[in-house]
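Single-chain item
Fold in token form
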Amino acid sequence: MSYENNARIISDDIFDLINECFSEERSSRNNENRLNFFDTYKDYFVLTDDGSYSINSKEINNKVETLHTSTGAISESFEKFIKPMKFDYSRDIAILDICAGLGYNTSAAIEDFMMNSTKNLTVDMVEISKATLACGLLVPSPIKEHDITKKAIEDELIKQDYASLQLEKCEIPENININVYIEDARQSVQKLKDNTYDAIFLDPFSQNMAPELFSVEFFTQFRRIIKDDGIVATYTSSAPVRAGFIETGFYIGQGPIFGRKQGGTLASPNPLMVDTALPKNDEIRIALSDVGIPFRDPDLKGSSESILNHRTEERHLARHNSKISSAVKTPIFLGDEMDDEKLKRRVERNLAKMNIPSTTSPEAYYIIECEKEYSKKQDEKNNSTNRILDMKERLKKVKNGNYVAT
């Protein structure tokens, strides 16, 4: 199976129907297939709470999920990808939208820009699947700016000989430039110029399905192409993703909570652009346990399976050597008195292998000392990234026997 087919996440049924629709459009040049598609196959689309539509994923681990939260597909775009931004509307704005999907994130960005600026907006949309982009043409537009995005998608699909008819009548404003790249995002980012983007929207379906889009090497490209005050926004709260951002020189913080129990992740080269700290236990687990081992894709060409397998192997090698075991969330008990004797024995067995005698030993308090200064409001020095890096260094000293109790 090609990487493109493997990376495509919409359900097989809707994928086949969309391809058939546009194949018939190319052969017959009849506009009825596209115009009637949504009404004909409405049951394949999922109405979310704000009135916008999503679609189902293909079956993954015996589960089918929608591409967007049921709380609201277009609302999710505004809440997770637009509201956290700190755009300077007195300047031109450039955005990279990775895994652009139906075009909702780009459309939300266009609406926000048009309400606040008369400068120029450039959006580079990257999506590997033609059919997924084509689905964006078929759903009803949740906001009028989605018609602008549809026009850009249609133009590129015609250029790629996937569509043949110009049915989108909306004109793209002169001060808005939308480029659509239908390819592996890992290849796209390597061709982009340094210090270009004010924002990067990172919206793959999941890190377990597409770890290649959350790797250290991919984030290294982000660090190169983003501006010093730029912000990366992603929906995931995953520890390896957050660890990957830190390893590549980003400061991280918690993104908005919308449609999920946990907030997403924001990352920036500038610590002052990321206001809200991660929860304290998240910091501790990323810093100290093997769950904080990031994804790696050294040549930016690895398969999802090979990347996941490599991380599993790296976690195994790190456990009890450079990282505390993540079993029973061991590190989060550092500094705590434990009443559950059975759990305490398991935790302290794991700690002993890292030269930490107990959860309340001097070594334990030394490692997590920076958490005494924990504040949900971040500043240049007191922030999640600095605390995580501090705890990592202190754990290394304890494990190597370089810590002497005072």
The mean pLDDT is 94. The radius of gyration is 23 Å.
